Amino acid sequence: MPPIRASDVNEALEIAVRMKEQGKYDWFRGQLENWPVCPTGLRLIEAKREEALDKLGRFEHWIRGTPGLESLLQSPDMFFAVAQHYGLPTNYVDFTIW
Questions:
Q1: How far apart are CA 1 and CA 6, in angstroms?
Q2: Model confidence band, residue 26 (pLDDT cutoffs 50, 70, 90)
C-alpha cells in the first residue's frame, strides 16, 4: 500500500481515526518511507551494537545503585521500556495505543 500523506497533524489524526473506525487499519507509523518494522537494536552495525550493550550495562548499574528504581529490574520489559524511552537502542518496538 502506498503511504498516505497529511498536510498537518490534525489531518493525520482525522485520517487515522477514520481508517480505524472503518476497520482498515489499527496502527500507524509516522515515517516518510514505508520501511519494514524493525527495532533500532537490530539495525545496528556490530560496533554500534557493542556500544549499545555497554550503555545498557551502565544503565543497569545506575539503576541498581539508585534507591527507588529497584522495581525496574523486576521485569525485563520494564527495564527495556525505560531504557528505550531515554534513547538507548533496544530490540523492542514502541507502539502507542490510543
A1: 16
A2: low
Asked if 75 contacts 23 with a C-beta cutoff of 8 angstroms, the reply is: no
What is this structure's pTM?
A: 0.64
**Interatomic CA distance for residues 98 and 94, integer angstroms:** 13
Asked whether residue 53 carries a pLDDT value surpassing 80, the answer given is: yes
Cell 497529511 sits at which residue?
Answer: 6
The C-alpha atoms of residue 1 and residue 21 are separated, in whole angstroms, by 19
- Any idea which residue has 485520517 for its cell? 15
Residue that the C-alpha cell 493525520 belongs to: 12
CB of 88 closer than 8 Å to CB of 56: yes
Contact 41, 49 (CB under 8 A): yes
Question: Which cell goes with 35?
Answer: 520501511
